[in-house]
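Researcher: Here's a chain I'd like modeled. Treat it as a single chain, no partners, no ligands.
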Amino acid sequence: MTAAIKLNLRLTFPGGVPLSHGKAELMELIRETGSIRQAAAKMEMSYRRAWLLVDELNHLFREPAIGTKQGGRRGGGAVLTPFGAALLERFRAMEARTMASLAGDLAWLSEQRAPQDPAASEPGAR
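Model: Modeled as a single isolated chain. Structure tokens:
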């Protein structure tokens, strides 16, 4: 069995700011955990990097995608705003439509690949 070719949708806005699978994953994990810090940890990303991505997302559109509250006795938190939830849903739908529309081409590319040596994929094999 061969591994499937992966497709990553990346939208680049004027000014060069991207919206891609990484930010979508971060949004999903914030929704799941209620925390930028916990989402960053699950992605093996620094809190600072995650915070910068959240800030970038929140300034890319007319309204914020992620809402935050300051820490305190009960701690801080983060949540997708209604706009953020709609953005994530639309982005994931665009990914699915892209995969569906390219399914035939991806299958053809998979058929054309040279056989893969399992040992070649081990660290330090090349």
